[in-house]
Amino acid sequence: MNIGKSVRLERxxxxxxxxxxIVPLDHGTTVGPIAGLVDLRDTVNxxxxxxxxAVLMHKGLPRCAHRGHGRDVGLIIHLSASTTLSPFPNAKIxxxxxxxxxxxxxxxxxxxxxxxxxxxxxMLRDMGEVASKCNEWxxxxxxxxxxxxxxxxxxxxxxxxxxxxxxxxELGADVIKVVYTGDVDxxxxxxxxxxxxxxxxxxPRMDSPRDILQMAHDSIVAGGAGLSxxxxxxxxxxxxxxxxxxxxxxxxxxxxxxxxALLEEPKI
Length: 268
Description:
Layout: H1 3-12, E1 20-24, H2 27-31, H3 40-50, E2 54-57, H4 62-65, E3 74-78, E4 80-81, E5 93-94, H5 98-103, E6 108-115, H6 120-137, E7 141-147, H7 158-170, E8 175-178, H8 184-192, E9 198-201, H9 209-221, E10 226-228, H10 231-234, H11 239-252, H12 256-264
Helix pairs in contact: 3-11, 7-8, 9-11, 9-12, 11-12
């Protein structure tokens, strides 16, 4: 691997475990300034102090989120966008470049593809071009790949998710983000078919911290490389403590009950 990519990947992945906790904060482009994303510095500080490995955001947000103090955290610049106001919300378009990420001091860039959408060919072309540019610059590429379109019966179908992951690998992504398929055995088939790290999306808000920790734990058992979880973290009652608990699962191989015990400890 290009040494530049190796160095940068070690800033967003724990070099001892080979795993990562990434907190996406790019939702404002899609849905506006939702809870948890109004004060970006405060949110970044909370997840960084909890032990997140990286945050992910669009190119305009580092100026609103850079703290200049506290615990360091990796930076991933997201290159794709669409909005829920569009009649074609699943059609992602590039709004930033690899060079933008370099200028902002990013450790990686990311793109979003929705396989099965009518604009799939455009997103595939864009990802291929970004991957080539990333190789030129030694910049890691995270590909968020979901199955969303008229021919997709279920975006959580294990074979479909495995297809998403494999496509990301074949087009040159260094890290791939997909949905969790719901159980260890089915998700193991996803990770087995992909030779680069696979992290899971957090998805919609979950009912309890136990559900979040259980999904994280099971994905690791299945060969996953960690999490790329947004709303379930930044909209939590205490994002710092939740990230600490997730850190214990992802990087320290704690059981779900052990991690929950950390959440239940009284604050000092």
